[in-house]
Structures are given as C-alpha cells and as structure tokens.
C-alpha cells in the first residue's frame, strides 16, 4: 500500500502516516503538489496495488480514502490517538485479530493482513480491531514483537464502501 495525504497536510497528519508506514507493509510519500493521477503512477512504479489518501480536519487526520486500480473502494472516518510510538513491529510477521465480526472482510481487504488462526492466539506483531469499551466504537491498535501496544490507535467513526465491490 502507498500512503499519502491530501495537499498541505499538518504535522499531526504526517506523523500519523509515518506511524501507519511503521506498522504496515506500506510506504508513505509526501504528496506535495502531486496530482492524484501522479500518486497512482508513483504507486505503480513502487509495485503498490492500493493507495490510501489521508484527509484531515482542523489539522487532525479524520479520514482515509482507499483506492485500488485507481478506483475508490472504501472510505473510513476516524479519529486518532497520538500517543508516542514505541516498540517495533515485525511487518513480515504481523497478523490481524478482528473481534468485530462485521468488519473482518473490510479490514482484511484494506490492510491485506492474514487473519489470526483459531486456537493460535498471539499478541506479538498484531493488529487488533475490537470494540472500544468507553466509546462503543471499533478501535484498531497495533502490538510489537513483545506484545506491547505500539501505536497508532485508530478509532473508526464510520465506513463506507464505494464502487461495485460488495465485499
């Protein structure tokens, strides 16, 4: 996945994008004056199938538009916890544990992570999607090779599938 931003992103949005790059098999590029078309060409050069464009409101990341083959397929509305990142995730061994059944197809498609095998639970190198106890909304957290939360923490406020794809 290639991660970029809307034009003229804030420092917080750039930090969030670098945090995603740190925990996912993804590359972040500074968009600058690049058009979306040029972003898609850059993704092809880098052999990246998906593009994620992070948008912001009032200087904070508030959404991600996901594209595949230059077509939008998903939009996430979100808020982000900006705790300082800690630990290192082994991107080659990261897996997904999704405790929100209705979102399993969504997050596996977006983040292209293997689902945790039943009976083989491990908190190491993991992306966890669960319901937040306080906010009763889904929250995605990342855990390092020692099973410690590493950030970023993403609260999913809403999601909308786009295009013809029903998955």
CATH architecture of the largest domain: 3-Layer(aba) Sandwich
Q: Which blocks of ≥5 consecutive residues have pLDDT under 50? A: none
Give the name of the CATH superfamily of the largest domain.
Brix domain
Which secondary-structure class do the elements indicate? Answer: alpha/beta
Descriptive account of the structure:
This protein has three helices and nine strands, in the order βαβαββββαβββ. It is an alpha/beta fold. It folds into two domains: 2-77, Brix domain (Rossmann fold); 95-160. It has a nine-stranded mixed sheet with strand order 2-1-3-4-5-9-8-7-6. Strand 4 and strand 5 form a beta hairpin. The two termini are 19 Å apart. The model has no long low-confidence stretch (mean pLDDT 90).
